[in-house]
Give the backbone structure.
Amino acid sequence: MVKGIESTGIPVAHICTIVPISKTVGANRIVPAVAIPHPLGDPKLVEEEEYKLRRKIVNNALKALTTEIDDQTVFQ
Amino acid sequence: MAYKVIHYINQFFANIGGEEMAHVTPEIREGAVGPGLGINKAFKGEAEIVCTVICGDSYFNENTEAATKEILELIKPYEADAFIAGPAFNAGRYGTACGTIAKAVQETMHIPAVTGMYIENPGVDMFKKELYIVETSNAAVGMRKALPKMSALTLKLMSNEADLDPTIDGYIPRGIRKNYFAELTGAERAVDMLVKKLNDESYTTEYPMPVFDRIEPGKAIKDLSKAKIALVTSGGIVPKDNPDRIESSSASKYGTYNIESVLNLTGDNYETAHGGYDPVYANDEPDRVVPLDVLRDLEKEGVIGSIHPYFYSTVGNGTAVKSSKEFSLEIAEKLRQDGVDAVILTST
């Protein structure tokens, strides 16, 4: 999916939990997530904290999208 | 005396449970469990599974280092002659787990390891150079065909048989070149091949070109505050009751959903159609998979320009690479026409 979209020139930030799979498949801007069943959240946190966590990951994805890269990059 | 073999399987094949049990930590059981019974049968007394290690797919992939260490500790006392993992068919997390643990066993215990996967399993590209991966079908219906091949290859490796060939032994080529004496010189063989090619006849290359299936990174966005961002997911988030009937695995389609007037995705109106992970957390709060709530706030605050009025969703569970490619090219074309500047794509 990531590659199909990016092949048209639109930059894609891939938020995913298993980074090695994303790398193997060929995503360029990779943003690590929390867990497989809840990549952008954590049911253990209270709502407010969970929102903050989600916002941090989304901001990270936006940082990835505004960063010029030549090669696959993981945005920790 | 029969060879001793250790077998690795996930929670599903150990009959512990499906996605709701994918978090289970490693455990060891004496003897064969599940697919191990078929492996034992194929060994015909020449080897035997002495123990089975079981680990939840999510636990393994979310704690790779710890899980690997725990499993190596658990199996050490068994002094086995070989290790078999899977087969994992087209299950991505299971394939990654099988590959990771098989490689670790091979490197630390110095015994041969064999696993089995469908050619599109991401574990194949990650581990085919280091491991013997028997090629299987994409689903567990191929179990009966896969187990005898995996067993036979394991027996060969344990008896140090040197003459292995991917086309005969059924494993995915590892990219190892072997010297041999050919009857004709390279020049003659090359000309033969060229003549066949010119005559449109079939021929087999002696040096298949690797496929570098990489995409050049898209240009970074210059001004985020003017950018139009689209959300796409392979995590299967759909409006409640899944109006497009997107399949829970091997999806044949994707959905396009209008979110113009939606501020965030709530469990009342949205859910996941994905059958490859425990849906409880996504159904409870779909923003955990498609973060519309955060993006709306960022839009309101002027951090980003706007959110594309539609989000696109499919289920990435065992879905063929070919289908995903088709979906994504269609989606990309729409995004381009609508002037989308960048995409956030989330995967579970």
In short: Chain A has one domain: 2-74.
